[in-house]
Amino acid sequence: MPVIDCDPAAARERLEAAGVAVGDGNTDHERWRAESDGAVAVAYDDKVVIQGGDPTRLTGLIREGGGRGHVYFDGASRGNPGPAAVGWAIVTSDGVVADGNETLGRTTNNQAEYEALVRALEAARDYGLSEADVRGDSQLVVKQVRGEWNVNEPRLRERRVRARELLEGFDRWSLEHVPREINDRADELANEALDDA
């Protein structure tokens, strides 16, 4: 549950500018409330508390934006193709500030890895990062997105284009291959999604 120290009036303006409906608070202590993507932001005198399933977008809008984070991604497929899922995590100096997972249906492992990268980058964008150090344990995805290896499969080529578009939205970014042990949170999340499906 993110707690953001901020000026609630300025945070409200940022939310309204992004098209999020902001209403009255439910008690005398609440200045306002806003809902988006299954999360609720509640403003008090000098802070905003965000609750709910996916606080990423509201948190990114309420923070003034910017900042640097490490973005971890992983896709998993049981069978190739088979049931697949993605997991991602965003880590800043405050620790793990956002994470998520989702099943994809039936797809290949490479398609799941690409989808995980895209979802992680969208989350980092929504969180408001200006600098993203992106890490994943798929050497194929990392080298293809960086342009070191060719992409022959049309669906992967399409996801590569989307990943590059998202990366170019950051002021600075890096994309590196890391061992699975370093990518364990994203890996856990992807496998949890498959286990729960």
Automatic annotation (TrEMBL):
Residues 65-195 form the RNase H type-1 domain. It comes from Candidatus Halobonum tyrrellensis G22. Pfam families: RVT_3. GO terms for molecular function: nucleic acid binding; RNA-DNA hybrid ribonuclease activity. The lineage of its organism: Archaea, Methanobacteriati, Methanobacteriota, Stenosarchaea group, Halobacteria. It comes from the Archaea. SUPFAM superfamilies: Ribonuclease H-like (SSF53098). Coiled coil: none annotated. This is Ribonuclease H.
